[in-house]
Amino acid sequence: MSWEAEIVDGLLDAEIDLVTQLPDGAMGAVLEGLQESEVDTLRVEREESAIAAASGAWVTGERAAVMCQSRGLANAINAIGSLSAPARLPFLALVTRRGDLGEFNVAQVPAGYGLPGMMDEMGVRHTVVEEPGSLRKTVRMAADSAFSTRTPYVVFLDATVTGYGQEAQ
C-alpha cells in the first residue's frame, strides 16, 4: 500500500470529517483519495485560514485535519498559538517536511528544519514519520490524541516518506 493510501485510511479510521488544505504536490494523491471517499475538503489560500477552519469544525462537532508543507505550518504559528492551543480547539496536522534531508531549496531550510523545536516551545505535540510502514496507525493515533485531549497534534512527514526534490513533484 502506498504512503498516500495509508494516510487516507488513517484519516478514515480516525473519522475525520473535514480536511483543510493548501496546494501541495506531494499530497495530491491523498487529496484525491479523500475526495473519492467523500471526505469534505476545503482548499484555502492561507495556512492561518486552514487552522481557523479546522478549529471552527471542532466547535460545530466535527473532527478536522490540516494538510500543508512545513513552511506553511510556520506561517500559521500565530493562529495555533493564539487560537487553537489556548482555546483547546483540536485538529490533526499532516505536514510534508521541507528543509531537512534532501532539501534543494535553501529558503525551505530555516522553518522546515526548525519546526519540531518550535512546536516543542509552543507545547504542541508532534511526531516525525521517517518510514511509511505504520503511517495508517500513526495518523489514527495522532488524531485520537488530538481530539481526546483537545489539543493540536502535528505529524511531520519526512522526505524519506514523501520523496524529495524532483521525486516529490
Word description of this protein:
The protein is α/β, with parallel strands linked by helices and 169 residues long. Helices cover 49% and strands 17% of the residues. It contains 8 helices and 6 strands, in the order αβαβαβααβαβαβα. The chain has helices at 3-13, 28-36, 47-59, 70-75, 77-87, 109-122, 135-149, 159-162; strands at residues 18-21, 40-43, 64-69, 92-96, 125-129, 153-157. It has a 6-stranded parallel beta sheet with strand order 2-1-3-4-6-5, with helices on both faces. α7 (135-149) links the parallel β5 (125-129) and β6 (153-157). It is globular, with a radius of gyration of 14 Å. The mean pLDDT is 90.
Strand order of the largest sheet: 2-1-3-4-6-5
Overall mean pLDDT = 90
State the assembly state of the protein chains: single chain
SSE order: HEHEHEHHEHEHEH
Shape: globular
Share of helix, binned:
40-55%
Number of strands: 6
The main pleated sheet reads as: 6 strands, parallel
Q: Determine the number of helices (DSSP H or I, runs of at least 4 residues).
A: 8
Please render the helix and strand layout as text:
Layout: H1 3-13, E1 18-21, H2 28-36, E2 40-43, H3 47-59, E3 64-69, H4 70-75, H5 77-87, E4 92-96, H6 109-122, E5 125-129, H7 135-149, E6 153-157, H8 159-162
Parallel strand pairs: 1-2, 1-3, 3-4, 4-6, 5-6
Helix pairs in contact: 1-2, 1-7, 3-5
Compose a concise summary of this entry:
The protein has helices spanning 3-13, 28-36, 47-59, 70-75, 77-87, 109-122, 135-149, 159-162, and strands at residues 18-21, 40-43, 64-69, 92-96, 125-129, 153-157. By secondary structure, the protein is of the alpha/beta class.
